[in-house]
Design a protein that fits this description.
- This protein has 127 residues and is an alpha+beta fold.
- Helices cover 31% and strands 30% of the residues.
- A five-stranded antiparallel beta sheet has the order 1-2-5-3-4, sandwiched between helices.
- β1 and β2 form a beta hairpin.
- α2 runs parallel beside α3.
């Protein structure tokens, strides 16, 4: 039986895109994933690469229509990191993808608006 379903994703990982903002360093990693076990595995890999990072924020979408999804701020103010990352996945209509943004805090608070902008900007570059 032939499938009529298709979806957009990334073919291979997109690694180590870096942005700096007021002393903070943001690094993004995008991975093609098939299920939540893949998500957990890749997230642990990033945490192992950056054990001293302040935050490991992420979003993922799984399924033909992205029906299984999650966004996580990992200690950033609510809605300032995970949601902007997730919105880029939606905006680019990709699924079966995990996008993680690592933040090393640089000593200057960016505010919720500043965080939303930077997480959006680095996510755009990784999708």
């Amino acid at each position: 039986m032939e499938s009529n379903y298709s979806y957009n994703t990334i073919a291979k990982p997109i690694l180590d895109i870096t942005l700096k903002e007021k002393g903070s360093k943001f690094i993004s990693y995008a991975y093609p994933v098939l299920d939540e076990d893949d998500v957990k595995k890749r997230l642990e890999e990033v945490k192992t690469l950056h054990p001293k990072a302040t935050h490991h924020c992420y979003a993922f979408r799984l399924g033909l229509k992205g029906e299984n999804y999650r966004a996580n701020d990992d200690g950033e103010p609510s809605g300032s990191a995970g949601l902007p990352i997730y919105n880029q996945l939606l905006g680019h209509d990709v699924t079966n993808i995990l996008l993680v943004v690592v933040r090393y805090y640089g000593g200057t608070k960016l505010g919720v608006g500043g965080l939303v902008k930077i997480y959006k900007r680095i996510s755009q570059r990784a999708t």
